[in-house]
Design goal:
Strand content: 25-35%
Helix content: 10-25%
CATH superfamily of the largest domain: Medium-chain alcohol dehydrogenases, catalytic domain
Number of helices: 9
CATH architecture of the largest domain: Alpha-Beta Complex
Distance between the termini: 18 Å
CATH topology of the largest domain: Quinone Oxidoreductase, Chain A, domain 1
Shape: globular
Structural class: alpha/beta
Length: 338
Amino acid sequence: MKIQALAVLKSGEGLKPFEYDTEIGVNDVLVTLKYCSMARGDVRFMSNFWGDTNFPLVPSSEMFGVVEQKGSDVKDIEIGDYVGIGYQMSSCHECEYCLVGKEQFCHSQKVLAVGGFGGLAKQIVFDSRFVFKIPTELQNPNCVSLMCSGLTVYSAIKRGSPQSGMKVGVVGVGNLGHLAIQILNKMGCKVTAFSHILDKQSELLKIGAEEVIDSTSTDALKNCKNQFDFIISTSSKSLEWSQYISALKPLGNLMFVGLPEKEVSFPAELLADYAQRGILGSYIGSPTEMRELLEFAKQNSISAVANVYPVSEINQVVADINENKSNFSTVIDLSNWK
């Protein structure tokens, strides 16, 4: 079976028409794709930013589509189902992590861009155990980013365990951050957004932030000392992390989801001095957490603030992301594939 896609054939090149061969295994489904996202992480994979991209690369780690065929062992998904697919492609289903429902930590896992072709394509063949039915209420392009960006922050928030009524912060309010604001708000938290782009303020207040603080203002950050129970950072910028740690209450946690461009450093005494503060990291979530998030998003009307473009404009979309012209979520409509 041949799959039509767009791919970067080697680092530094643009997207070009590409075709590859694949087969439907016993646990696989063939999905005709309707939408995929194009995030900053996808663009970084295209330039081999992290040094682990496998070329040719078909980017996009978030997609929606309809199941056209299924393997003989597929039980929970039917032909015609509207489904979503995210970053993780497979796991061993036998290790200590897989057996307790934490497949995202499996040492044998495969993920898109590093281990397989992504969603900027007409169709995709995928392991059904990492394919998720999408509720009718979420079957629109604004919800595509739940499949990886949303899952990533949802899993991190669960790990940090903020409770209703707590004061929490979100550092960096792009694709991941603006979803984190909505999730935390619907959990009953009092959310502060930290951003260096204050033009976003009205939109951030609309989706659940109670206040917006300049993430680069030393004076503003000093005024936050000992105020926050939990802060999640989705930023890739190198910020004054000591100030964010100081903004935590005793027993508060700073959770890193975004990967800063430079090494993170701070005085260790900030963790211990009258405090017991913690620094945490996170990764993508599990299939179980993906299903939880989809139900939570359905019940609370959570979706991305998305700009949707036809696939014919993909090269301009990539250029805009590289030039920081994309505020929140970017989605590609694949319906007019040529």
